[in-house]
Specification:
Layout (H helix, E strand, L loop, with lengths): L2 H21 L1 H4 L28 E7 L11 H9 L1 E6 L9 H10 L21 E2 L5 E5 L2 H10 L8 H8 L4 E4 L1 H7 L5 E6 L16 H13 L4 E8 L27 H16 L7 E6 L10 E12 L5 E4 L2 E4 L8 E3 L3 H8 L14 E3 L5 H45 L4 H27 L11 H22 L8 H19 L25 H24 L3 H20 L10 H16 L5 H23 L8 H10 L3 H15 L3 H17 L9 H8 L3 H18 L5 H28 L13 E2 L8 E2 L11 H7 L10
Parallel strand pairs: 1-7, 1-8, 2-11, 2-12, 5-6, 5-7
Antiparallel strand pairs: 2-9, 3-4, 4-6, 8-9, 9-10, 11-13, 14-15
Helix pairs in contact: 1-16, 1-17, 1-18, 3-11, 4-7, 8-9, 11-12, 11-21, 12-13, 12-14, 12-24, 13-14, 14-15, 14-24, 15-16, 15-17, 15-23, 15-24, 16-17, 17-18, 17-23, 18-19, 21-24, 22-24, 23-24
């Protein structure tokens, strides 16, 4: 065929297999956002805010309060369950444990912020908020404001304490702060709240003082509303659990002349806060929007905290008018989980209720009533269940990953020993069969960890044991499907089935609301407040790896059937589906996934099609990858700020000049995780492939080479896998976890395929029994290797017929090497 004709056909194949991946951008975001204007504006588009709510907006802030504190002794919380909307609040800010000051500063900044972590030894682990209010109703000043600003500037979240106050002042909205924490929330850039009331003073431990009169607090709230404040922020005090205090945190001696306990028990503190809440709620007009939020942990154990609201909502209802916080759960577009929100959602909630547009620096979304109906008991069970799961999974996750890593290393070690040991043919066949099946079982574990969340393992007395049993329960059908189906004898049959099941489990989850990933062993942890839906780094690693392995197996079968073009189109189709699920905002919502998926699948499709990869074609694929990434991000950015995912928010960060800080934070996160146990698995996995699978085993054959000889697609599939995890590692924060997590599926399946190739090779070319060797010290050759002797003399005979047969064994595409 003429050279120009071959070139045109290669270009046609290049376009055919890569175009679906690149045009996927056009279907990822439906609606008006798809119509991209010719000139992109510098300022981000803003949604038209709702008119202000009819009554005052009141934020009643507390800390350490949870829904499992509700009892007959907490009538205020019970009333909110009956007639309000309720949810849980993820309160993580800048450290693992959130102190009350951190929560108030996050409300002030609209981003994660916190106090300095320099509490002297022997003092309470969290400083209580402090403020100076010389005259009730006059200006108030937050203590240590310069420290808060300095910490925010040095941090990586680009927070600006005082943003809430300056935004409201620019809009002409009058505010009032009641209590020291409220002064912090409503302080301007100089640390001053224009209208403030002293509120109630906490004990030295930070716990609420039950001797303080709650009526005084209610009087100050009533005065603030009477003075014309449209937004009133109230500090109810925070629960500080003395049974969950930091190591070395002292319990003050009872030196009070009145005999008052300086650190009351948890139940007493909860009752004190509930009494204050009940008193203040009684002073609010019926038209008020009241939001009750616990924005801090009560001790050293992170929890999902209490969140409730009642009155006119900050969002639009189904009928196009303002919704109402009543008899529903609370959620937000930042979490997309019914009954779950995060502290950064309070900033846009307050602004939306006041009819003020949120600035671009805000990262949260307004609270919305979701899942209406049901009774208060049902809602209580739901929110308590969310916190129970989030709490139960925390101690189990590190144990699981340590066991997972150890099990993978044991698998590598056992495989090394078994493949290096001289045994009889009968024993060897049985050993290889067991090793292949065990490897498939190991590869089935990651998908099973998500399916385990179909069962409420966290409700039992021993959640760690329960989740382990449930994971094992789901491993069985996955492994059985791979090992007992009609594809079981194919080289890449189980390889593709386990990969496909893993991808389908994760795709099905994001398509139905990302419920399985929440509080799962390899999913997202709500108390971390990093991601609540879509694919985290482990999720992306497992999903994309599963897609690639399934595509490789399908292409291998089609190529063996003589349908190479169909195989290439199949790879492109699988890649397209993978790209749409991973990159679509609201589904996978993955920023770093598409740049890894597009080149990996495009190159695999071209290799399968027989197209030679030149520099020009590689640049075309790279350009298409960048176009997909930029297009996804810009289209998401063109949506209203409240509707954006982190793709669009990153574009706004670039416009604002903050891209460098994001890159630095990602680099630091990668560096930090590089020295964690999970990352240590990767070098062992690479060493195992290079030094064990790719080298001759005890009877001379190279398992990986035998697999390559029988599959013309496997080598290209592994190269695409390396591209996938390599780019994923480079572009994602904490990306060092991606190759390691991907290896937990890919390496066991590679072991399975390589061992299967050995089994097939031995069936066709049985090696001699080592116990019946014809010469002392001689090991039979196989798999293209010359016989080895103990003294390494120059061989005087030709290689065995088994060796020659192996060297000329037909490839999967019908050609010979």
């Amino acid at each position: 065929m003429p050279r120009t004709s071959r070139g045109r056909r290669s270009v046609a194949l290049l376009v055919t297999v890569t175009a679906p991946l690149l045009v996927a951008l056009g279907v990822l975001l439906p609606g008006p956002a798809v119509a991209v204007p010719v000139a992109v504006p510098v300022a981000a588009p803003a949604a038209t805010p709702l008119p202000a709510a009819p009554g005052p907006v009141v934020l009643l802030g507390t800390g350490g309060l949870r829904w499992d504190d509700v009892s007959s002794s907490t009538p205020a919380l019970q009333s909110l369950l009956g007639d309000g909307a309720v949810g849980t609040l993820a309160v993580r800010t800048v450290r693992r444990v959130t102190c009350p000051l951190d929560g108030w500063l996050t409300i002030s900044a609209g981003r994660r912020a916190g106090d300095a972590d320099d509490v002297p030894t022997g003092q309470p682990a969290c400083r209580a908020p402090q403020a100076t209010v010389p005259t009730p109703g006059g200006p108030g000043t937050a203590t240590r404001w310069d420290v808060f600003r300095r910490e925010a500037e040095a941090g990586s979240f680009e927070a600006t304490p005082g943003l809430l106050a300056t935004t409201l002042a620019a809009a002409g909205v009058r505010t009032a702060a009641v209590g020291p924490g409220a002064v912090v929330a409503l302080a301007d850039a100089q640390g001053t709240a224009p209208v403030a009331y002293p509120g109630l003073v906490p004990l030295p431990t930070g716990a609420p003082d039950e001797t303080e009169n709650p009526t005084d607090l209610a009087d100050e709230v009533r005065a603030a509303i009477a003075g014309g404040a449209r937004l009133v922020v109230v500090d109810l005090g925070a629960v500080r659990d003395r049974t969950d205090r930091a190591p070395g945190e002292p319990v003050p001696p009872n030196t009070s002349t009145t005999g008052q306990d300086p650190w009351p028990d948890r139940a007493s503190q909860v009752q004190t806060i509930d009494t204050r809440l009940l008193t203040v709620l009684g002073e609010l007009p019926s038209s008020a929007t009241a939001v009750v939020a616990s924005t801090a942990d009560s001790g050293q154990t992170p929890h999902l905290q209490l969140l409730a609201a009642r009155g006119p909502a900050a969002t639009v209802g189904a009928d196009g008018t303002r919704a109402t916080y009543a008899q529903a759960l609370l959620g937000s577009r930042s979490t997309r989980q019914d009954g779950m929100a995060q502290t950064t959602d309070l900033f846009p909630t307050l602004l939306a209720a006041l009819g003020v547009p949120a600035p671009a620096d805000a990262v949260g979304s307004p609270l919305a009533p979701v899942s209406p109906g049901g009774d208060g008991i049902d809602r209580l069970e739901r929110v308590v269940d969310l916190d129970t799961a989030a709490l139960a999974v925390q101690p189990v996750v590190p144990i699981f990953f340590n066991v997972l890593i150890a099990a993978q290393l044991v698998l590598y070690g056992v495989a090394t020993v078994l493949l290096r040991r001289q045994t009889s043919p009968t024993v060897r066949r049985r050993t290889l069969a067991v090793l292949r099946r065990v490897a498939v079982v190991f590869a089935s574990v990651p998908a099973a960890t998500f399916l385990a969340n179909l069962l409420p393992w966290w409700r039992g007395q021993h959640p760690g044991l329960a989740v382990s049993l449930y994971v094992a329960l789901f491993v069985v059908p996955i492994a059985a499907l791979a090992l007992l189906g009609p594809w079981r004898r194919a080289l890449l049959g189980p390889f593709g089935v386990v990969g496909g099941v893993t991808a389908l489990v994760l795709a099905g989850d994001v398509l139905t609301g990302s419920h399985l990933v929440i509080s799962s062993l390899m999913g997202v942890q709500p108390v971390v407040a990093g991601r609540f839906y879509g694919f985290s780094n482990p999720g992306f690693a497992l999903f994309a790896t599963g897609c690639l392995l399934a595509a490789t197996a399908a292409a291998d079968w089609l190529v063996n059937a003589g349908r190479r073009r169909t195989a290439a189109l199949t790879v492109a189709a699988v890649g397209l589906a993978c790209l749409v699920v991973d990159g679509t905002p609201g589904l996978g919502s993955d920023f770093g996934g598409p740049p890894a998926i597009v080149p990996a699948f495009a190159l695999l499709a071209l290799w399968v099609a027989g197209v030679r990869i030149t520099w020009r074609r590689a640049l075309l694929i790279g350009g298409g990858t960048v176009a997909v990434l930029v297009g996804l991000s810009v289209l998401d950015w063109l949506r209203p700020p409240a509707d954006r995912t982190h793709l669009g928010r990153f574009v706004q960060t670039v416009v604002d000049g903050g891209a460098l800080a994001v890159v630095q934070r990602k680099a630091l996160q990668n560096l930090g995780i590089l020295f964690k146990p999970l990352s240590a698995l990767l070098p062992f996995a690479v060493a195992f492939v290079v030094l064990v699978l790719a080298r001759p085993v005890a009877w001379g054959a190279r398992p990986l080479q035998l697999a390559y000889d029988r599959s013309s697609v496997l080598r290209h599939g592994l190269a695409s896998f390396a591209i996938l995890v390599g780019i994923g590692f480079a572009l994602n924060d904490s990306g060092t976890a991606i190759p390691a997590v991907a290896a937990t599926v890919a390496i066991p399946l590679l072991i399975s395929a390589s061992v299967r190739a050995l089994e097939l090779h031995e069936t066709e070319h049985p090696p001699p029994d080592p116990r019946k060797a014809t010469a002392p010290g001689v090991q039979p050759g196989a798999g293209g290797r010359k016989p080895r002797t103990a003294t390494r003399p120059r061989p005087t005979t030709r290689p065995s017929t088994g060796s020659r047969a192996s060297a000329t064994a037909p490839r999967g595409d019908g050609t010979r090497e």
